[in-house]
């Protein structure tokens, strides 16, 4: 890609100080980035200039994994790829937050698309391994079959407990709010 | 005040105080590496972040600036249950900070916070995305994130079969 890409000269220096002048520094930072308003109509500043439709064609020839890098290359390309963001970023996000999701949510995300499935597998490899094991039952001896089935059942139980816990949390929340109201009166 | 130059993937440079930058695990390591390799202790470190564009980097720095006096959370705290501390940690400022963002930006922020190792920001952004997917059906998630199913043949069925052990229906 490097040969194709000439990112626009956006070299700027601004100071993000912290101390007292908080208000000021935020304003300084705010005019730092030029986000194009006319997104689709603008082409990246490359030579020779190509219309957005042509870029679209060029992008199609690239393996998908490159799209995230393209988005980061310059604001114009980022805008061109706006509609692809979900497709490109969501699986990456799943890989990153997979182990924080409730089990049931993680399992549902696996069904969204192949790439989401891969994302979850990256973020939560131990879960995937565990749920796949029972499918291999016939390859194991009887003793291990029993163990594997028990493990699968424990997983299922954990999911039920998790959703129950969620309900309890919500109830607790409303009780707390009620108590606060009572205190105020 | 000691400063560090942080450069985004699209070439914008931010001058940040080192004290602030060191609240990001990644930048802290980079600054220390620079210190070790450079003879001149007065030299200003320059760090190029190749995976984060200026708009997102600005948001991360802005968040760091707002939270510069928070105690630093150990990275592995609450790993088992990421939901515990996020609830109390989320201030009104954070809510206002996240409110105007669309999902694309939030997802880019998650990847940036993960890369730069900014635990607090990762927590609040994750929580936001989690709230968008928990309790939804597969189709609802596809619509919300503009995704298409790319399963071929019986691949989807296979995945469903694997899930079956844990989810009834």
TrEMBL record, chain A:
Pfam families reported for this sequence: F-box
InterPro entries xref list: F-box-like_dom_sf, F-box_dom
Superkingdom, taxonomy of origin: Eukaryota
PROSITE patterns from the UniProt entry: FBOX
Domain spans labelled F-box: 44-93
SUPFAM superfamilies: F-box domain (SSF81383)
Protein name per UniProt: F-box domain-containing protein
Gene source species: Orchesella dallaii
UniProtKB/TrEMBL annotation, chain B:
InterPro entries to which the protein is assigned, alphabetical: SKP1, SKP1-like, SKP1-like_dim_sf, SKP1/BTB/POZ_sf, Skp1_comp_dimer, Skp1_comp_POZ
Record keyword Ribonucleoprotein present: no
Pfam families: Skp1, Skp1_POZ
Transmembrane region(s): none
Keyword hit for DNA-binding: no
Top-level taxon: Eukaryota
UniProt keyword list: Ubl conjugation pathway
Domain SKP1 component dimerisation: start-end pairs: 119-166
Pathway: Protein modification; protein ubiquitination
SMART domains: Skp1
Signal peptide residues on this chain, from the entry's feature table: none
Domain SKP1 component POZ: 4-69
Family, as annotated: Belongs to the SKP1 family.
PANTHER family, per the entry: SKP1
Protein name per the record: S-phase kinase-associated protein 1
Organism of this sequence: Orchesella dallaii
């Amino acid at each position: 890609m490097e040969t194709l890409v000439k990112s626009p000269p956006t070299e700027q220096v601004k100071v993000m100080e912290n101390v007292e002048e908080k208000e000021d520094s935020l304003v300084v930072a705010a005019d730092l980035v030029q986000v194009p308003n006319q997104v689709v109509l603008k082409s990246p500043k490359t030579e020779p200039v190509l219309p957005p439709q042509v870029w679209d064609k060029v992008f199609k020839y690239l393996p998908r994994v490159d799209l995230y890098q393209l988005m980061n290359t310059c604001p114009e390309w980022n805008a061109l790829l706006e509609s692809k963001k979900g497709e490109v970023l969501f699986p990456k996000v799943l890989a990153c937050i997979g182990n924080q999701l409730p089990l049931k949510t993680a399992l549902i995300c696996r069904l969204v698309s192949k790439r989401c499935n891969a994302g979850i597998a990256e973020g939560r490899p131990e879960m995937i391994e565990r749920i796949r094991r029972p499918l291999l039952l016939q390859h194991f001896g009887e003793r291990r079959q029993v163990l594997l089935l028990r493990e699968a059942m424990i997983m299922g139980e954990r999911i039920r407990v998790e959703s129950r816990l969620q309900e309890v949390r919500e109830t607790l929340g409303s009780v707390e709010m009620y108590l606060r109201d009572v205190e105020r009166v | 005040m000691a400063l560090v130059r942080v450069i985004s993937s699209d070439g914008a440079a931010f001058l940040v105080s080192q004290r602030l930058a060191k609240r990001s695990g990644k930048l802290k390591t980079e600054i220390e590496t620079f210190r070790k390799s450079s003879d001149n202790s007065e030299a200003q470190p320059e760090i190029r972040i190749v995976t984060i564009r200026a708009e997102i980097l600005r948001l991360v720095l802005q968040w760091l600036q707002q939270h510069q006096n928070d105690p630093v959370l150990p990275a592995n705290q609450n790993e088992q249950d990421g939901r515990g501390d996020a609830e109390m940690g989320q201030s009104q400022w954070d809510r206002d900070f996240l409110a105007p963002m669309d999902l694309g930006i939030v997802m880019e922020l998650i990847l940036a916070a993960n890369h730069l190792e900014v635990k607090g920001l990762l927590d609040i952004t994750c929580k936001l995305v989690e709230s968008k997917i928990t309790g939804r059906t597969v189709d609802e998630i596809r619509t919300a994130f503009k995704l298409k199913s790319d399963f071929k043949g019986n691949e989807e069925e296979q995945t469903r079969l694997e899930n079956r052990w844990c989810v009834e229906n």
